[in-house]
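Internal ticket - ligand job 328, pantoate:
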Amino acid sequence: HIPARLAAAALSLALLSTSALAEVKERTLKFGYSTFEAHPLGQGANKFVELVGQKSGGKIKMKVYPATQLGSETQTISATQGGVQDIVGTSTAPLAGLVKEYAIFDFPFLFANEKEADAVVDGPVGQTLLAKLSEKNLAGLCFFENGFRNITNSKRPISKGEDVAGLKIRTMQNPVYLESFKTLGANAVPMPWPEVYTALESGAIDAQENPYGIISVNKLNEVQKYISVTKHAYSPWAVIMSKKLWDGLSEEERTIFVSSCNEAKDFQRKFSRAEDAKIVADLKSKGMMINELAPEEVSRIKTTLQPVIDKYTATVGEDLVKQAQASI
Ligand code: PAF
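stdout (structure tokens):
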């Protein structure tokens, strides 16, 4: 009896999965992002592509375009809104220009560590923000991480807020970053990422800020001497689909994308965190000077930036900020 029952169970499972995949169409999608494939974000993107392939029985394929091949983050977000690009991976900072609530992630020193970041990004605040993208012709799938951002520059180690004053620093195209660095007295200029290496090389700018992984994979050690471990903000990285595509998907296809994104996210964050120590050692061996800031100096910077936090608390709404704080 048992083998017969097992055979029946196997048959019904097989039927279930065949009938399930009947709701999945053959598709080849365009997935573009700014970092190199070797970066943990690129590895996470590949994992996502692989999982979608597996779960769709090979029906859904994605062609990845890393390294800004399809343009800057703001350009690729626009292309995804228009449905010209199917999926985009992007730091969340440029999204604040579309959905103002995204600016919450850009608050200086919002998270003290990765555990706090995960709690907020994976909690109700993150869910609200993913859902809000639908107002802008986008469908948010999940958040990977770019990570905690540190300042690099060609002039001097930054040991206190005053050391930032006078530096010509590139920021992402985001008002919270721009105003924060201006408040510290820097000459801050928003600039699309594809222009940054050349601007650093030519001396048009002195400084930029990004997590270790981005500094390393883009070889910023060739054009920057100092990394100061400010950890002044944490960048989530959103995986976003065009709403035009999303609206045409079956429930089953949607589940494939969302569950694959979430599985890839866990892989990606773990990978990213495991890489950091190795990257720091490598950057040091390539001649970069890395300095930590004393905790009291970080507190002083935070106090200086409180007016920016207050201003953008009003923009994103006090309730959202309270919700974030409650998740930490
Ligand atoms: O600095 C940026 O613009 C972003 O951190 C980057 C490097 C494009 C990754 O999302």
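Auto-summary: The first strand starts at residue 27 and ends at 33. The chain has twelve helices and nine strands.
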